[in-house]
Amino acid sequence: MATERTLSIIKPDATKRNLTGKINAKFEEAGLRIIAQKRIHLTKAQAGTFYAVHAERPFYDELCEFMASGPVVVQVLEGESAIAKNREVMGATNPADAAQGTIRAEFAESVGENSVHGSDAPETAAVEIAYFFSGLELVG
Ligand code: IDP
């Protein structure tokens, strides 16, 4: 196993309900360290660039609107197998399918407004981290 870094986003549905601390506690309890974090408000265009891989999906416009609808907390999590571990802590995309105790089972409102984003592979993690953070902002 190797130490990895992954990009996490606490989405607008969760910041609106003041859940940042509860979600961060889940990451820390799982052994993930928050080595960078900032609260920002994306424009729809910035959300669109971030989610460009989904541009052909029917929910793309709705997703970009949602991600620009309020503040988000972007963060870099570090730890052993951080990418897979974070996705385990997040739970399935649709909260109806998410395992008990996961962030999405506890907090997500719907398949779209599902409280958190997490990178899905080392290559995407590197690109996504670089989208929001400079190397100087990553304090491991
Ligand atoms: P993931 O976030 O679990 O990796 P993806 O399939 O990569 O899931 O989808 C990215 C995001 O797009 C989801 O987290 C969710 O916010 C949104 N999304 C996915 N499927 C739907 C859908 O069927 N309707 C609306 N939004 C969706």
UniProtKB/TrEMBL annotation:
Superkingdom per UniProt: Bacteria
Active site: H117
Catalytic reactions on record: a 2'-deoxyribonucleoside 5'-diphosphate + ATP = a 2'-deoxyribonucleoside 5'-triphosphate + ADP; a ribonucleoside 5'-diphosphate + ATP = a ribonucleoside 5'-triphosphate + ADP
Location within or outside the cell: Cytoplasm
UniProt KW keywords: ATP-binding, Cytoplasm, Kinase, Magnesium, Metal-binding, Nucleotide metabolism, Nucleotide-binding, Phosphoprotein, Transferase
Cofactor(s) listed: Mg(2+)
Primary localisation category: cytoplasm
Identification of the protein by name: Nucleoside diphosphate kinase
Organism encoding this protein: Meridianimarinicoccus roseus
